[in-house]
Amino acid sequence: MSTRTEPLIRAENVRKRFGDSWILRGISLDVYKGEVLVVIGPSGSGKTTLVRCMNALEPIDGGRITIGGRLMGCREHRGRMAPLPERLIARQRRHVGMVFQRFNLFPHMTALDNVMVAPIRVLGRRAPDIRQEAVDLLERVGLGSKLDSYPGQLSGGQQQRVAIARALAMKPEALLFDEPTSALDPETVGEVLDVMRKLAKSGMTMVVVTHEMAFAREVADHVMMLDGGLVVETAPAETFFAAPAQARTQQFLRSIL
Asked: pTM for the complete prediction?
């Protein structure tokens, strides 16, 4: 269970726009160490933008995001926010793993090499030192027999599990998932969700954008619904699905369940 000290992830009144369109209109949330927050909502509600802002892949236009006490993507000086140089943002991202809809594996590298590449290039570790750790991670996600396979030789579900192992190789404090099963065939969705369930049980702090409601009900500590760039409702998973408080939440759940 999480300890109620300071949240590992905190967003405060986060705002983001693209051109004249506001995508996030003041999002606030707390995720404590060991918790799983599932974010749901209709297409265009701001879910993907939110997790990209958390990892400083998108700069925010207002508010603040801290992860592990670090102000993500910017620094505060005399009450004003200024963007950090990209090299410092990249250093912050070492602590936060990200798993995307598309797997973004290097096609010319084996599964093992894909998992090893970030610790070698980003952390400066030596290949002989990291190899066994990478093997262990691929075994952890059920791919111990696919070490020498290239992405083109793997199913979508297997590629996504390699991507999860790659994110874990950096020993992150938290993992962010942006609809990790949306690009998969239905028969491979379950194998990815099984890995994510095991990560949650192991105590990994996770923010998961997903349409998989059964997964959310089973694994999430809290569920947050976004619509139009605003938080409609946040509640413990059991309460969220059994007795949603907001009419918009009730309508959305009826439409997808």
From this structure: 0.94
